[in-house]
Design goal:
InterPro entries: C2_dom (IPR000008), C2_domain_sf (IPR035892), PH-like_dom_sf (IPR011993), PH_domain (IPR001849), Ras_GTPase (IPR039360), RASA4_PH (IPR037777), RasGAP_CS (IPR023152), RasGAP_dom (IPR001936). This is Ras GTPase-activating protein 4-like isoform X3. GO terms for molecular function: GTPase activator activity; phospholipid binding; zinc ion binding. The chain is an alpha+beta fold and about 700 residues long. It has four domains: about 120 residues, C2 domain (Immunoglobulin-like); about 120 residues, no CATH class; about 210 residues, GTPase Activation - p120GAP, domain 1, CATH 1.10.506.10; about 140 residues, Pleckstrin-homology domain (PH domain)/Phosphotyrosine-binding domain (PTB) (PH-domain like, Roll), CATH 2.30.29.30. It has 18 helices and 21 strands. β6 and β7 form a beta hairpin. The relative contact order is 0.08.
């Protein structure tokens, strides 16, 4: 894809801390006062990795500039500027606060700006806080198409999901295999799947298997089987569950599906605190940047040892808060997760009962809980839906250091960490205490049995619930009337709940309008030319009278548009009175703008896309889809499974004429292949039917 030029004036980031007030009353001329306090996370414009920022404040043709703070992206000014308030500009006057990077030779670089409406400011009298810096007006690019290209790899997977009855045999066979595998009466299907997966598809297969067995209520038994398989292949306890095996990937997937709500409650407060504080934290002397840390006091620059000492105290504070949350979380961890960790703990204890391996059962639990779940979420909160945006460089470093400390606690070995990274030694007392606390936590976690208090049944359940969404959008609602010539959109607060899509002027307004979700027939995008925006969607619904009604929603960005489209389509996935086609345009001046048909009731000119949604962690389980994906994988590896099965039999010294138990395994494998062939034939029949329909339409 060809790259296009980005205007530097659009590439802004950071926030500025301001206090703005209107002073004076009565006969005293009123003044507009702007106090510029500080800024943070500014863009780095100079070669030295920083900027030389100053502030330019404009109002009513008058401009003031602050002093220049050299080599800092977190400058402090504490300067005030006053303007005489022009009463004639009360409705249209704007106060502009711009941040610039000062350059001695070349022109100054724009770092962002904030605009304030004076009319609103007079009503509030004073406004103070952190304000996001916005971009300047974009300029036309002169270099479009000449800046090289970006190579992307995209994959569209279009699956035809058959009715549930088609998947029942393969689902029952796999479930029966998991339940009976300990008795040895069935082929080791899970072992064969494990042996025939590759590094490229192992994560996807693990996801599908976990969701399939969750839907069958057998995920605990499935994980127990693959724990046994992994333990049977492991002779060195220090490497247990450290590779990317099917067992490791399946447990990872299970925690993300079953434990995401738990993770949010556990990590949410500490992650939010780190993002909001944006403190400079660094323990490695080779990476300490004095200019990033700022001043310790008036005219006194902080030393390297000052920064490391403060960072150590701050990290210990973060770590202490996190460990306290972990200990408290034993009371609300989902019961199913407790049970899975309980059986893992017991399996490892059985496999390595020797006294010198007494820590291994704890490390087996922490290898998943800390190293594959909590630590990755700390390092990348956005990927685990803990934050809407990725962290900046400063916050990322803080999160990384905290994650390192959690990993060290999870490994339960302070000496190895300190030998590799000696600068972590200042955290050793806190880490040692954390190891003790984590052992106590695991002991509580794995002792939560089904026979305990009924309070356990009120623990947080799997988060596969109803999709809910809310926020401000621009709306226009139309029935039979044509579209007005002027912009029809008005700002409303839109709320999607279990049964309704409602909207009102404010979040807490008592008066609101709503659409019943079962009455929604289509949720689709609108052509850009219709409203001059590519981020408009339409919700088509039917009234009790049978009359059709369309609600247009204008979103701020393509991401917001896609999230609303996806959320509404999922909420209406079980609707029966849906449309098969729709108009992507609008009905205006007696015709549709998309296809130029003249009747408003004319059939749509484009297919609806009810099933096109985003994949998100809170999606409900779809057993038929998971079974279809498992079928596709088994179909692709069935020959490899057969070969692997006979290879393993030969390695184990099993002969063809062995016991009837072995014959049952062979029969079970044949049954699986027969089921896969039946599914293949069913798909072929659906494809043939579709081709016949298309041919008929073409001939007509």
């Amino acid at each position: 894809m060809n790259l296009t030029e980005i205007d530097p004036d659009e590439e802004v980031q950071g926030e500025i801390h301001l206090q703005i007030s209107v002073q004076g009353d009565g006969d005293i001329p009123r003044k507009l006062c702007c106090q510029v306090l500080e800024a943070r996370d500014l863009a780095k414009k100079d070669r030295n990795g920083a900027s030389d920022p100053f502030v330019r404040v404009r109002y009513n043709g008058k401009t003031y500039e602050s002093t220049v703070v050299k080599k800092s992206c977190y400058p402090r000014w504490n300067e005030s500027f006053e303007f005489e308030l022009d009463e004639t500009l009360a409705d249209t006057g704007l106060l502009s606060v711009e941040v610039w990077d000062w350059d001695l030779v070349s022109r100054n670089d724009f770092l962002g700006k904030v605009l304030f409406n004076i009319n609103k400011l007079q009503s509030a009298k004073q406004e103070e806080g952190w304000f996001h810096l916005g971009p300047d007006k974009s300029k036309h690019s002169e270099y479009e198409g000449t800046l090289g290209s970006l190579r992307l790899q995209l994959r569209l997977r279009d699956e035809v999901v058959l009715p549930s009855s088609h998947y029942k045999p393969v689902t029952e066979l796999l479930s029966q295999s998991v339940c009976s595998q300990l008795k040895g009466n069935w082929p080791d299907f899970i072992m064969l799947i494990d042996e025939t997966t590759t590094a490229e598809n192992r994560q996807e297969v693990a996801n599908n298997l976990v969701k399939l067995f969750l839907g069958q209520g057998l995920v605990k038994e499935f994980l127990d089987v693959i724990f046994k398989l992994e333990l049977g292949k492991t002779n060195e306890p220090n490497t247990l569950f450290r590779n990317n095996s099917l067992a490791s990937k399946s447990m990872e997937s299970f925690l993300k599906v079953a434990g995401m709500q738990y993770l949010h409650r556990l990590l949410g407060p500490i992650i939010n605190r780190i993002f909001e504080e944006k403190k400079y934290v660094e323990l490695d002397p080779s990476k300490v940047e004095l200019k990033e840390a700022g001043c310790a006091g008036l005219h006194r620059q902080q030393t390297e040892s000052d920064i490391i000492q403060q960072s150590s105290i701050l990290l210990q504070s973060y770590l202490s808060e996190l460990l306290t949350s972990v200990l408290q979380s034993a009371s609300y961890c989902p019961l199913l997760i407790c049970q899975v960790f309980h059986q893992l703990y017991l399996r490892v204890q059985e496999r390595f009962p020797e006294p010198e391996y007494r820590k291994v059962k704890f490390i087996a639990v922490t290898s998943f809980l800390c190293l594959r779940f909590i630590s990755p979420a700390i390092m990348s909160p956005k990927l685990f839906h803990l934050r809407e945006k990725h962290a900046d460089a400063r916050t990322s470093r803080t999160l990384l250091l905290l994650a390192k400390a959690v990993q060290t606690i999870g490994n339960m070995d302070t000496l190895t960490c300190c030998s590799k990274e000696p600068w972590m030694v200042c955290l050793q007392p806190a880490i040692q205490q954390g190891i003790t606390q984590l052992k106590d936590f695991i002991t509580k976690l794995v002792n939560c049995h089904e026979s305990e208090d009924l309070e356990l049944q009120t623990r947080m359940s799997l988060q596969c619930g109803t999709m809910e969404k809310e926020g401000f959008l621009f709306l226009h609602r139309t029935k039979d009337k044509c579209m007005p010539m002027t912009s029809p959109f008005k700002k409303y607060y839109v709320t999607l709940r279990k049964d309704t899509l409602s909207y009102s002027r404010t979040p807490h307004s008592k008066k609101s309008s709503f659409i019943s979700l079962p009455k929604i027939q289509a949720v689709e995008k609108v052509e850009e030319k219709c409203f001059g925006s590519a981020n408009v969607m339409q919700v088509i619904s039917s009234e009790d009278s049978g009359q059709q009604e369309t609600l247009y929603l204008n979103c701020k960005s393509v991401n917001e548009l896609n999230h609303w489209l996806s959320a509404l389509r999922k909420a209406c996935s079980h609707n029966t009175n849906t449309m098969s086609c729709y108009h992507p345009g609008i009905y205006k001046t007696d015709r549709w703008s998309c296809c130029h048909q003249k009747e408003k009731s004319d059939p749509g000119c484009d297919k609806t896309r009810h099933g096109l949604t985003l994949q998100e962690w809170f999606d409900p389980l779809d057993p038929d889809l998971e079974a279809q994906l498992i079928y596709q994988h088994l179909r692709s590896v069935q020959h490899a499974m057969r070969d692997k099965y006979y290879e393993l039999r030969e390695q184990q010294g099993v002969q063809e004429a062995d016991s009837g138990r072995d014959q049952k395994k062979v029969d079970g494998l044949s049954k699986l292949f027969s089921i896969l062939q039946d599914l293949h034939d069913a798909h072929a029949a659906v494809e043939e039917e579709e081709r016949s329909k298309n041919k008929k339409v073409f001939l007509e």
